[in-house]
Design a protein that fits this description.
The complex is a heterodimer of chains A (about 120) and B (about 110). Chain A is mainly beta. In chain A, about 0% of the residues lie in helices and about 50% in strands. In chain A, the strands form two sheets. In chain A, strands 2, 4, 5, 6, 9, 10 and 11 form a seven-stranded mixed β-sheet that branches. The mean pLDDT of chain A is about 90. Chain B has no helices and eleven strands. Chain B is mainly beta and about 110 residues long. The chains are: A mainly beta (about 120), B mainly beta (about 110).
Chain lengths: ~120, ~110
């Protein structure tokens, strides 16, 4: 199993550009999510999905879109990049949600810089 | 929503000493408390977790304690080693929600 795979690992964008961060997992996990990590602020939830066709907003959803057409994939779209979106992005998945104790598996992270 | 506070933000200890990191939370319905370790440039990885019906859990040199009444839980690392140097995050979760809430992280440095 490859686990949770994110691409690209590094990206530089110009303000106003759009892009998609890809995330795929091969563990048949129901739950997938996107976090951003900023210095001194920990990990903040952007969007999450509890299954194919179902998505919901997290703590900081503005400026981002997601979709979940398959169990395996959960792409994150930046519609019009802003410097405030410069961050490290982590995709994460777990087997199911609603049962406390399910381990979250993180992808390797995507370093995004918006200039 | 939940508010998770983590202290200290940085911690330096001599090799062999113990390290303690504490988190407080606000939502009394939170019932699962994991700890993650993140090495520089790497992804966070689960190192230990505890559920609300347990007061303490140990795994070799690491342990977690939970005080539900006071709404705080702590990570204890004994006999620290240089490879323990990393950022540690606490988190909370409750069954009726669909997200984890993370603390802001503690950067631990173990000095050889």
């Amino acid at each position: 199993n490859a686990g949770v795979t994110q691409t690209p690992k590094f990206q530089v964008l110009k303000t106003g550009q759009s892009m998609t961060l890809q995330c795929a997992q091969d563990m048949n996990h129901e739950y997938m999510s996107w976090y951003r990590q900023d210095p001194g602020m920990g990990l903040r939830l952007i969007h999450y999905s509890v299954g194919a066709g179902i998505t919901d907003q997290g703590e900081v959803p503005n400026g981002y879109n997601v979709s979940r057409s398959t169990t395996e994939d959960f792409p994150l779209r930046l519609l019009s990049a802003a410097p405030s979106q410069t961050s490290v992005y982590f995709c994460a998945s777990s087997y199911s949600f609603g049962n406390s104790g399910n381990t979250i598996y993180f992808g390797e992270g995507s370093w995004l810089t918006v200039v | 929503g939940e508010n998770v506070e983590q202290h200290p933000s940085t911690l330096s200890v001599q090799e062999g000493d113990s390290a303690v990191i504490k988190c407080t939370y606000s939502d009394s319905a939170s019932n699962y408390f994991p700890w993650y370790k993140q090495e520089l440039g790497k992804r966070p990885q689960l190192i230990i977790d505890i559920r609300s019906n347990v007061g303490e859990k140990k795994d070799q040199r690491i342990a977690v304690t939970l005080n539900k009444t006071a709404k705080h839980f702590s990570l204890h690392i004994t006999e620290t080693q240089p490879e323990d140097s990393a950022v540690y995050f606490c988190a909370t979760y409750r069954n009726t929600g669909n997200q984890f809430y993370f603390g802001t992280g503690t950067s631990l440095t173990v000095i050889p």
